[in-house]
Amino acid sequence: MSHSDDSNDSLDLSYAPPKFINNSRQRVIFVDFISAIYELVFDVNLQTATVNSNILFFSDSNGFPAISLKQPVTSIQLDGEEIGLEDQDSPDKEASFKILTKSVQPGRHELKIANLITEEGARGLPIQWLSAPNRLHCIFGMSDIHRDGGFLEAYMPSNYEYDHFRMRFSVKIINSTVEHSIFTNGATISTAAGEWNIDYPAFYTTSCPWFHLGPSDEYDLLQSEFASSDGRTIPILVYSTSAQVQRGLELERFKEHAFSVLGELELDFGPFPHDSVTIFATGIGQGGMEYAGATATRLGSLRHELDHSYFARSITPANGDAGWIDEAIASWGDIDYPSFASPPLRMSNMGQRSAYKRTTSRDAYTVGRDFLAHLDFVLRDRGGLRPVLADYAARKQHSTVTAREFQTLVESFYGASLEDLFNKYIYSETPTPFEAGEEDADALNPHHISPEELFDDVFPAIDK
Ligand SMILES: [Zn+2]
How far is the CA of 128 from the centre of ligand 1 (A)? Predict the structure, then answer.
């Protein structure tokens, strides 16, 4: 590995939660994944999905490494030795994850894990097996408001959000005569019929990859190109299930809206920070979810989700306590960036709950949004908050942010402390409870979507 990789390792770890001693007097540490190769095999006859992961990680100290995985493990080896995985709570009980049952010394280590995909992910079961003829749909759906996070670890071994690492998915479908298509936001090549390699950009974190497989003849695709303000030609894929298109979903409307949104976002925040745009267009009853240069969304949430390609999946939150920033930005944009002379209606703690927490506070959609609208007013003599966000988008592109870093950046633009405002509305030690009659964050939340809805959309009624 090159020297620059090493310096990256220590940068990622500077955003990791604190090490701690657990009840078994073991020192639990957080590590830096350097690369992960995931071999996925979907056997359509046996209806099994297996993953063999080969993870290279760096540790800056001795201890028992924490990793994240929510599917059943069939084998695990650390540096060639059989070990186990144990459940572990954070010291404040705000999060749970796994630790390896063997400690490591500082340096590089190889972790091999085999797991099945049998359990529900962040949005229900990830795989739908179909017969006559044998085929499957698979979506690694994610959620930032799912308890304990619902990112890649819902399907395969992964790390906390602070970690940027190279990922390769090596995918194989066996025992199917049906042609399948793959939809991803990585560099994808087909190596044989039913086989693909996907290389995701090195800046991706556990929340960034979009991965979707399905029978080719059950999807409709619309391809186009967006001319970015920086001269790049950015390919845009809008697709949906043929069943949904037959029920009236118009891919063309998604495409046109995407072009207009991308044009606005580039004017406000600079060139689109990804090399492609992939939009899985879903039905009207649904919310949306953001990925890096990709989204699964209904038309009404498309602007919100593409906004997240700048804020959330280019600048990635270090943890759940930084998640409010991108939800507040996207929600402020959803109401067209108003300026509020008054601060939010209630105090909140969405930015200082726990360094171990992976879930974004739902207050981000209401209190967080109104907080930014108020900051826009406070900064009115300097052109408001939008120029700050444009500078932020460029300066922090493809890197991690914490709530405190965001505060510092806004303060440096303002030229004075904003500590009182942040203490009251972002880090409050005495947050005001949600009151009836107030706008309901869940109702507003464009990410709110039931697993049933997602599957309704993907899987034709005849198969249910
Ligand atoms: Zn959002």
Answer: 26
